[in-house]
Design brief:
By secondary structure, the chain is of the alpha+beta class. The chain is 19% helix and 32% strand. It is built from two helices and seven strands. The strands form two sheets. It has a five-stranded antiparallel sheet, sandwiched between helices. A two-stranded antiparallel sheet has the order 4-5. It is globular. The termini are far apart. The structure holds ligand K2U and zinc ion. The site of zinc ion has 5 residues, from helix 2.
Length: 159
C-alpha cells in the first residue's frame, strides 16, 4: 500500500546533504519496496517526471525517472518509470543542452539549466542487479536533476 508523502521544500537541511548508499542487505527489503511505491505515488500526484528519496525525507540514494510528454517537452518520450538504486553517471557527452527545469522542492520556480545531452548511468534495480543504460535528451536531464538531489544540489544552484 503506497501513500502520498510530504515533499521537503527549499531550505530544509535534508535537501542539502549527500544521501547514503543503499546497502545490499536493504535491497529486496519490505521498506525499500514501500519507499519506492510511495515515491512513485507522490511523484505522480505532483505531476512530476522524477523524484529523489531525499525529497520525501529519506536520505538514501534512490531515484525514480519517469519521462512523459509535457507542456515544456511535448516530444519527451513516454517511458515506464525506472527505479534506480545507487545511480552513478559514468559518462557525460561534452555537448550540453539548455532546458527548462522545475523542482517539486522549489515551488513556482522555473529556470534554464545546461545538462549533458547524452549520459551513461549505472545503478542497481530493485532486484539488486547492476544495470547500465545510455540516455539522451529529456530522460538524461531528469537523471542529472535527480542525481544532483542525491548530492544535495538543487537546480537553482545551476541557473
Ligand atoms: O526532482 C524533482 O523535483 C522532480 C522534477 C523533475 C524534473 C527534472 C528535470 C527537468 C524538469 C523536472 C519535477 O518533475 S518538476 C515538474 C516538471 C515537469 C516537467 C518539466 C518541468 C517541470
Ligand atoms: Zn528536483
Amino acid at each position: 500500500m503506497s501513500q502520498i508523502m510530504a515533499v521537503a521544500q527549499l531550505g530544509e537541511a535534508i535537501l542539502g546533504i549527500r544521501a547514503s548508499e543503499i546497502q545490499i542487505h536493504e535491497l529486496e527489503s519490505n521498506w525499500l519496496q514501500h519507499l519506492t511505491a510511495s515515491m512513485q505515488a507522490t511523484m505522480l500526484e505532483r505531476n512530476g517526471v522524477g523524484i529523489a528519496a531525499p525529497q520525501v525525507y529519506v536520505s538514501k540514494r534512490v531515484i525514480i525517472v519517469a519521462s512523459r510528454p509535457n507542456v515544456r517537452y511535448p516530444d519527451a518520450p513516454e517511458m515506464q518509470p525506472i527505479i534506480m538504486m545507487n545511480p552513478v553517471i559514468t559518462t557525460c557527452s561534452e555537448q550540453t543542452i539548455l532546458g527548462e527545469e522545475g523542482c517539486l522542492s522549489v515551488p513556482d520556480t522555473r529556470g534554464q539549466v545546461a545538462r549533458a545531452e547524452k549520459i551513461t548511468v549505472q545503478y542497481l534495480n530493485l532486484q539488486g542487479q547492476p544495470v547500465e543504460i545510455r540516455l539522451e535528451g529529456f530522460p538524461a536531464r531528469i537523471v542529472q536533476h535527480e542525481v544532483d538531489h542525491l548530492d544535495g544540489i538543487l537546480f537553482t544552484e545551476r541557473l
